[in-house]
Design a protein that fits this description.
The complex is a heterodimer of chains A (about 400) and B (about 290). With about 400 residues, chain A is an all-alpha fold. Chain A has helices spanning about 20-25, 35-60, 65-85, 95-115, 120-145, 150-155, 190-210, 220-240, 250-270, 275-300, 325-335, 355-360, 370, 390-399; strands at about 335-340, 340-345. Chain A has 14 helices and 2 strands; from the N terminus they run H-H-H-H-H-H-H-H-H-H-H-E-E-H-H-H. Chain B has about 290 residues and is mostly helical. Chain B is flat and about 65 Å long. The chains are: A mainly alpha (about 400), B mainly alpha (about 290).
Chain lengths: ~400, ~290
Amino acid sequence: MSLDLTKEKGVELDKQIFDWRDIVRTPTSKLDDDAFTRVRIILMNGIESEALRFQHSCARMNKDLQLALARVRRVEQHQQTLVNWLLPADLSPLETTIGFEQVAIEVTASVAQHEPDPYLAQVYRFGLLEDFDHLYRYSALMDRVMGADANNILQNYTDVLPGRPTAVEHRAPEDDLREPYDRTKAAPITKLNAVTLMGGEHQTHDYYMTIGPMFADPIARQLYAEIASIEEQHVTQYESIIDPEETWLEKWLLHEATEIYNYYSCLMYETNPRIKSIWERFLNYELGHFHFVLEVFKKFDKRDPAAFLPQTLPEPIEYKSHREFVRKVLREEVDLRARGTQFIGKEEEEANFPSVIYRSQMNSNISPSEAVAADYKWKPGTELAEETSDIKDLQKKVA
Amino acid sequence: MEKEVAGEIAGGQELLVNRTGLMLNPELGAELVQGAKETIPSSEGNGEDMEMERAEYAQEGLPIGSNPSPVNGKEMEDSEELVPNGGMAVLLDKLGERLAFERQGTRLYEAFIQKMAAMPVDGTDAPTVEDLRHICEEELEHFKLLQQAIVELGGDATVQTPSADVSGVLSHGALQIMSDPRTTIPQALQAALNAELADNDGWKMLENLAEQLGQADLGEQCAKAYEEEQEHLENVRTWLSQMILAEAGEEEILAETDDTDDKRSNKRSRRDTKKKSSSSKKRRNR
């Protein structure tokens, strides 16, 4: 099934209504729901958060669009609340963090494999290996400070292994910018991918900035400070791949199309019927937003929107384990570094490169990500656990 | 205003003065109280609406999570008596709870040991690093014992059970207190005391449950662990009590000295303006 954006009108904006009970539902279960249900909730919170962020920026620069933006934004905010409030209270900030990194790994892996532009696919794989390393560092923190196992959240879908070491991810700003796609030539999926990952990473940054100070342990506080800094670099990277020549209205339409694409992807993969009905409802709300904005676009812009928008949606984001792809990327690209907008091997780095100098300064006192994971190897049930007979049998069966 | 309350800030050091109470600044406090007294609430009632609303959510009946099931049905052949599946599910849930608790307890005491090593205290009232290490090792042994017990019953020791989850939420505060470098040894002991109280009851319940379900060997293992946990509790309770009493005695001596010197009126300001220094920190830890 594919969805035709021109034909599907969704729910009219005026009919998109809420009340507080509707917004605040009984949350999902940390223990019983599939990890990918949580992954989708976290990502969609990020997508809605990006919708608000973009629409506020747009309003500050476009007086004529302010009312239209305010009307759509009111609904987006309530959508975001409903989605984000599906996370349960027993999901601790660190457990939610593990969920955020699982999003960054599995969603980026899917995006990287579906990206037709080889340079941008490389950019995504580059970011993927960094978030992959964050998961490893946070898992070590969870094990060593909280005495808990990150796999209770990951549910076996995602490996806990070192990626590109967080300590070397610190780059000078000039090495975080990438080349943008060309809005006149890029495939629609390229644009949707870029907005999706930009939104996801921005939300991750904001989340770490909010919860970092909630930790008492100084190493935990340092680790959040360190990884939040990388997430800020990732936002810099992902926003720079979007063509800055797109007009405000073009960007608004692309944001709405991205929301449609993401809710559609969630709908295609959701296993919890209660949550699936929310994805379906919000897919229809986003179609309503899209057509509302399309009318606004026609008032101000004489272009045919078909020139930059997809008519039908591309293949949905694949909500499944991308273990083999991630391992391949890890084997082949872990030693890549950034130099300007391009990627180089680590052996090509020289001592006077801006990123090398910057990294050396940031890590001059301590590297929290190295300290927390010193000699760390994930084991079933944490590193304190003994290998029980059932785990040994499991390995024999797989072998 | 700051100067009137707390005196001069000398040498760029941070002032240690508690500003949370109303009486710190009586004039501002009086204005606040007067303003609140003149308030007209925007709605009438007595909290009934909140109660009804909470009941609506509770009646949806969605749980935090489900009990794990045995992975291979092994319980039937190993058990002396036929254990109903419901009983086994409860046992695995509670075993999972203790397992998570003991594993977290190990990390809790590791953090305590590091705190003790970083903040040495004078006197004999406090635990030694060796005392804490002994408890920590026993917590780890209990964790491993539970791992084996769960696997032998046909369970999966890596599962986070509903009771483990609830207990994790409950004990989150203890870990926060222990890992905060600003907390004192008595404050850390308070966190340990709460953990040990819960742990003692947890082991006793597990012992009873195992016996009721015909798991005699497991019951014996739980009884032994319970004995060890009783010792932890007794020790933590004694250390905390002794340290608090010693601290109070020290404050009393300080007060008497102030009386003798006829400086009672200055006591509060002098104590309020304690500066961050190694000596003051050490005093608080004793």
